[in-house]
User: Fold this.
Amino acid sequence: MAHVSTVGEAIRRTNYRDLVQSAAHAFCWMCCYVGKCSNGSDHLFKISDNLSDIVALKFPGECGHCIKSPCRCSPEEMDEDEDKDAKYPQLLERKKNNSYKDRSIDNWLFDFWKIYSGQIHLQTLESVGFHLLEEAGEEAKAVRNLIQFRGILEANITGVDEAYLKHISSIEGLVTEYSTTMSELKERYDKPRTKDAMKDIDLTSNDPLLIRSRIVKAKMDFVVELADTFSWLCAVQLKLFEILTHEKIDDSVVTEFHIEEVLKDRYESSTVEQPMKCYACEHESCECLFYPAIELVAEASLEAAAEESNKP
Ligand SMILES: [Zn+2]
Ligand SMILES: [Zn+2]
Assistant:
C-alpha cells in the first residue's frame, strides 16, 4: 500500500517523474502480493489464479457494473450498493469467453481505455488518484477482515476445514461458494439484500453458516478490491498518457514511460531468460535482512516465559 500512497503524493505535487516511478513500484508490489498469496502456505489468503484472472473477474472485457463496453454506468449507479450475488456468476461466465494467460500490462491498458475512456477523459488526474487511494484502502480493510480468521481451522467448525479454504482459493470456487452462502444467509434472516443480511450476523456466534458467510465475504472483498485497485492504477496511467498528448514535457522518463521497462531496468533483467536481481542487495534471490513482527512477538513471549520461570 505504501507505493500507492506515493502515487497519491506525486499527483498532489504534480511530479510526473515520481508518479511514473511510484506507479511502477505499486504494480510490482501488487504482483509480489498475489505471488505470495498463491505460493504461501496460508490457506486463508491462498489464490490459485494469477493477477490477470483476478482482474478479469471484475473486468472481463466489460465494465463489472453495467457489463457493457464502453461502460454506460451513470456516476450514481457506480456508487450504488447493489447486490452482487447474481452478478459474480454472470461475470465469471463472461470471463470464460477470453483467455487471460500471458497478458501484458499493455493488454490491460488497452481494455480499460476501451471500457472507460469516456470517464477517464472527464475526470481530473487528482480525481482518478483519489479513486486509486480509496480502493487501496478498501483492499487494506479486506486484508484486515480476512486476517481475523487466521486461526479458524483450530476452532473445528463443521464445514470450515482445510478442504473448504482450498475450495475458495480458486476464483471459480469462491464465486460459487459466495453465491450459495449468501442465498442461504438471506433466507435465514429473511432479507432480500446481502448487505442487510450481513449486518444481522451475530459476531459472537460460531454457527457454521455465519462463519462461512463472514469468511467468504472477506475473501471476495479481498479479490474484488484488488481488481479495483489495479483498474484505478491503470486509469492513473491512462490519464497521464492523455495529459502527455496535450502537454509538452521534456523528460524522457515520463514521456517514454512503460511499467515493464521501468521494472526491467530496476531489476536488471532485459530479457525473459535473464533472471531479475534485487536492486538493493543485487542477488538473484534477495538476501536482504528483514525482521517480521511475528518473530518479534514469538521472541517477546519466549523472553516473558523465561522471566516468569526465573521468578522465585
Ligand atoms: Zn459501467
Ligand atoms: Zn535484496
Observations:
- The radius of gyration is 22 Å.
- The mean pLDDT is 87.
